[in-house]
Design a protein that fits this description.
By secondary structure, the protein is mostly beta strands. The chain is about 5% helix and about 40% strand. The strands form 2 sheets. Strands 4-5-1-7-8 form a 5-stranded antiparallel sheet, with no helix packed on it.
Amino acid sequence: MSGLNKEAGSLSKGLAKVQVSLRWDPSPMGTPDNDLDLIAATYTAEDPYGKPAYLVHFDSRSPDGTILLNRDSRTGMGLGSDEVMTLELDRLSPSYARVVVGVAIQQGGGRKTFGDVANTGVRVTEGYNELSADDFAAVAGATAATVVEFVRTGRGTWEYRPTVRGFDADPAAFAAVMGSA
């Protein structure tokens, strides 16, 4: 993963609005579709490593509209990013202290890992600044992975921590454990 642990977009003001973009190639003709999903889990200040306060994934958004899945693909077909999630961290309630973003591979057509899906990649950006990027090579045998963690500092600003960590779990199980320490 490239990028430095960057607390601020500029002059220590912290991160404001970030995007997580995911890409992958479609499956070969005659095989089940490659369907990867971005998932964000938001944690409260009282329980930053416990159960998520809420999840954002396909067909959902955060209750306050600060985290939104702008694009959702079920096949990886198309140009550019297949899924894009926008997180407006600067608008997130002070009761939230941590947001973890991950990727899960749908397992409906049989077990698939990141190594089974061609041309995978994830980018985390704030405006035109790339904070991190990864190709999932380090977690090729995993069916899901966390990709970035956003943490509210003691000053109330947001910093990010690139954290590609693989899991062997279906999307539902992954959503329950993706924020564990």
